[in-house]
Amino acid sequence: DTESVIFLVGNKQDLCHIREVEREEGQKLACECRCQFYELSAAEHYQEVLLMFSKIVRSASLGGKAKERRRRPSGSKSMAKLINNVFGKRRKSV
């Protein structure tokens, strides 16, 4: 029996002046769907994206169970390198 791991992620948190979905609405939907909710800004804080993806990978590898497993340092370092390659260094919006 396999269990899916679902995350609801809202991006562009830094653009609140053009927000279309309120944070509370996202949290409510996540609660109704029994999934985790994250709201972040990839443009301003790519570290948050790294943390979120790390949690997704960890949850998927645990089969959605809450218990922690010991992480291998090389795995998290390679994940950080991958995210850094995708998003690059922090860029300022114009």
From TrEMBL:
Its EC number is 3.6.5.2. Residues 63-94 are annotated as: Disordered. The keyword ATP-binding does not apply. It comes from the Eukaryota. The keyword Amino-acid biosynthesis does not apply. Keywords: GTP-binding, Hydrolase, Nucleotide-binding. It is an enzyme of class 3 (hydrolase). It catalyses: GTP + H2O = GDP + phosphate + H(+). GO terms for molecular function: G protein activity; GTP binding. Belongs to the small GTPase superfamily. Ras family. This is small monomeric GTPase.
